[in-house]
Amino acid sequence: MMILIKNARLYSPYEMGIKDILVAGTKIEAIKDKIDVGALDIDIIDAQGEMVHPGLIDPHVHAIGGGGEAGMLSRVPPLQERKIAESGVTSLVGLLGTDGYTRGVKELVAKIKGFKEWGLSAWALTGSYQVPSITITGSVGDDITFIDEIIGVKVAVADHRCSFPTTEELIRLASEVRIASLVANKAGVVHFHVGASDLGISQLFEIVDRTHMPIRHLFPTHMGGHMDMAKRWLEKGGNVDITCHSDADEKAASLLELYPDRVTLSTDSNGSFPKWNDDKSAIIGMGAGSIAELKNYLDKLLASGLDKTLALKAVTENSAKAMGFKSKGKIEVGMDADIVIRDGSDIRYVIANGSYLVKERVAKRSMYDDIC
């Protein structure tokens, strides 16, 4: 399949001016001021001078649903493919959360494989909040080495729901991930859910201070609640993920202006947002994350006066680098054809790996749209 996008106001995420973009198969074939395809029978889209940018990347998604802290009824439903596409997301990383008992890594990887069959790019993390980590093979390292979709592990710290792992346990876990990632030629991500405790990422600082572990392997999320630590972590050369919730746009903007290459945004989509009483003995309110918030918070950043490239990097190039997605996050010749075509703030087209997921504002159907 070939697609020619004409008159695109291209942000690659870097501002490129008005360009034509040629997609051939799954890749971006050419980017020029004008592209003439003659009599070739290909799809031609006139972007009409509107913004065109890379497909969004969400590095923290509860693909099969999260939650469960308030009993079985509080398990959040799985994420639908159509909602992902409608949000402009073309790549994501699925993971587990608090509940590693009724949900497992096999189910997660199966869901990720389904996303890929539908047309998305998708990966997974083994493990959940707990230590020792739950896995498919019995080993975090084997999961990363032998299962294509698995690029790292999820673990929780500084949270009353975590396993309170020691720093030594986290060092061994990070070491296992690093060695397996070298063998498997993957990024090797240790993705830390960081709870509200004042401990924050103190154990992560201890890991990099005590060992030769490259800081790029340690990827803390929910860092909007630990801004001082986030700045210190960025100063050390680490990546920081901010969850799209509350004033995340303001917090992300303040960090992006200082560290434009290592701040990311994620949604925690289909994960639960429990509100606890003061002593954490009861839940007094419950919400859930939405994949739509990645675009919503990008739009807030774009409207805030922050440089548009910085805003876009947080949901494209920066996430691709942090996750080791070498062909994602940029609209450049040779990269995967993951493209969003806007009409103002609306999404007009979403192209993923060279195929339409949204076409003239209508999303591709999921298999069970009619019944769920």
TrEMBL record:
<protein>
    <submittedName>
        <fullName>Beta-aspartyl-peptidase</fullName>
        <ecNumber>3.4.19.5</ecNumber>
    </submittedName>
</protein>
<dbReference type="GO" id="GO:0016810">
    <property type="term" value="F:hydrolase activity, acting on carbon-nitrogen (but not peptide) bonds"/>
</dbReference>
<dbReference type="InterPro" id="IPR011059">
    <property type="entry name" value="Metal-dep_hydrolase_composite"/>
</dbReference>
<feature type="domain" description="Amidohydrolase-related">
    <location>
        <begin position="51"/>
        <end position="347"/>
    </location>
</feature>
<dbReference type="GO" id="GO:0008798">
    <property type="term" value="F:beta-aspartyl-peptidase activity"/>
</dbReference>
<dbReference type="InterPro" id="IPR050378">
    <property type="entry name" value="Metallo-dep_Hydrolases_sf"/>
</dbReference>
<dbReference type="InterPro" id="IPR032466">
    <property type="entry name" value="Metal_Hydrolase"/>
</dbReference>
<dbReference type="Pfam" id="PF01979">
    <property type="entry name" value="Amidohydro_1"/>
</dbReference>
<keyword id="KW-0378">Hydrolase</keyword>
<dbReference type="InterPro" id="IPR006680">
    <property type="entry name" value="Amidohydro-rel"/>
</dbReference>
